[in-house]
Amino acid sequence: xxxxxxxxxxxxxxxxxxxxxxxxxxxxxxxxxxxxxxxxxxxxxxxxxxxxxxxxxxxxxxxxxxxxxxxxxxxxxxxxxxxxxxxxxxxxxxxxxxxxxxxxxxxxxxxxxxxxxxxxxxxxxxxxxxxxxxxxxxxxxxxxxxxxxxxxxxxxxxxxxxxxxxxxxxxxxxxxxxxxxxxxxxxxxxxxxxxxxxxxxxxxxxxxxxxxxxxxxxxxxxxxxxxxxxxxxxxxxxxxxxxxxxxxxxxxxxxxxxxxxxxxxxxxxxxxxxxxxxxxxxxxxxxxxxxxxxxxxxxxxxxxxxxxxxxxxxxxxxxxxxxxxxxxxxxxxxxxxxxxxxxxxxxxxxxxxxxxxxxxxxxxxxxxxxxxxxxxxxxxxxxxxxxxxxx
Length: 391
Prior knowledge:
This protein folds into two domains: 2-34 and 160-383, CATH 1.10.630.10; 52-123 and 125-155, no CATH class. It is 45% helix and 11% strand. The chain contains 14 helices and twelve strands. It has helices spanning 2-23, 33-50, 53-57, 61-70, 72-76, 85-108, 126-136, 143-155, 158-172, 175-185, 201-204, 208-221, 252-256, 331-348, and strands at 27-30, 190-191, 197-198, 222-228, 235-237, 240-242, 248-251, 281-282, 308-309, 349-353, 371-373, 382-386. The strands form five sheets. It has a three-stranded antiparallel β-sheet. A three-stranded antiparallel β-sheet has the order 7-4-11. A hairpin with a 5-residue loop joins strand 2 (190-191) and strand 3. Helix 1 runs parallel beside helix 14, helix 4 (61-70) packs across helix 6 and helix 9 (158-172) crosses helix 12 (208-221).
């Protein structure tokens, strides 16, 4: 995943820096913070994953991608086309877009295009190129079927993109947490010759407060079903018998909202249905934390009063990626994507939330619940200001 992440990091860093350049000296209004973050991150993810030609050949793909995502339950419930024509047209267009991209790759790719990292500009990651060859060897797979399978892999990136929005949203709406995250990020800022900032992901992976924001975002906002089937023997769990060849379905939300498994503060002031980064921060004995999970702002991770980030104390309760050998293979990239995107936005922009957006909740309707990271219940209008950043 390293070449893939490197391309993503370079692209999203450029996207957000250019957005900052355009905003300098003026206030910019956005109808929806989710769309603002989503556009920048989705473009960077798709370019890193599929190469530049998917979006170049299909300029409306970004819009249709999110229409498809918003209508996931429409397809899963088998609602007739007649009752949801816009949803089905969006699905038809995204699948056609993938077919167009892959036909272009078949027509133009040769081995000389493969770079030293194994990827190429036509297929993007070697993942798609190798899958394509593998599927063609299987009975019943044609180019249309391959495009459908590959769009499923592309669509799966929506979880980390939506999680990045939620992390940014939560940091912006808590001034103490925002100040603490910025203090932690400040020593990590680097600038290039154009005055643009960038971050070394290895530094971000050592920041406890930023990682706590990431972990709490997934605890609170990830809702999906873990499906398993014991295929050899019956399973005995606390005197409950799960027969072999029977399907088990478990919802992550149940574990993530179990008040007996989670720290809710000294006086139970941080309910499990509310965001609190302090659940994942461990402090030296005797220290207490405030609402943001940070007692004292410090940019020195080696300070004796600095917190440490940990998920060990909630093993089995924090399961946003599933568990065991079938847990999400993209979890390491997802963490890097969320940390970097959050770091860029909160460093480069100040944000005023408008129209009560600071109290925005999740969409728990069956329109999207259970498909992964939740969407907000509505739009999040904001006023953004470019920040001056030293480094």
